[in-house]
Amino acid sequence: QLQAFGGGLVQPGESLRLSCVASRFTLDNTVGWFRQAPGKEREGVSCMETTDSTTYYIDDTKGRFTMSRDKAKSTVYLQMNSLKPEDPAIYFCATIKGAYCSGDPHFVYRWGQGTLVTVSS
């Protein structure tokens, strides 16, 4: 089971750190963060590969979001800085089929429960 935590209401320019915790298995897979805003399709935001921890980000989040992993705690994190009004969404973590990253939701093996991020002044 995967569970995401850490969402909340912040003002533009502020930060949040999301956590994704795996229970009953070690989270050393390729893992992605996705988000879905109202009326929009779910999109991949960042992804970290299991092999060498290579990490990918969509252009809109590069330089603002940082993904990290603590294998001992079976937890991955998404540090989100300089949040923008276009970032609000439900954020999900997910394990990806295979070893390589994909931002396509069809390549997700296991979805976690999401956490809501709201950015508003």
Give a brief rundown of this model.
The chain is mostly beta strands. Helix content is 0%, strand content 48%.
Give the helices and strands, then pairings.
Layout: E1 2-5, E2 8-10, E3 16-22, E4 31-36, E5 43-48, E6 55-57, E7 65-70, E8 75-80, E9 89-96, E10 108-111, E11 115-119
Q: What distinguishing features does this structure have?
A:
four-stranded antiparallel beta sheet; 0% helix; seven-stranded mixed beta sheet; 121 residues; mainly beta; 11 strands
Overview of the structural elements:
With 121 residues, this protein is mainly β. The protein contains no helices and 11 strands. It has strands at residues 2-5, 8-10, 16-22, 31-36, 43-48, 55-57, 65-70, 75-80, 89-96, 108-111, 115-119. The strands form 2 sheets. Strands 2, 4, 5, 6, 9, 10 and 11 form a 7-stranded mixed β-sheet that branches. It has a 4-stranded antiparallel β-sheet with strand order 1-3-8-7, with no helix packed on it. Strand 4 and strand 5 (43-48) form a beta hairpin. It is globular. The termini are far apart. The model has no long low-confidence stretch (mean pLDDT 93).
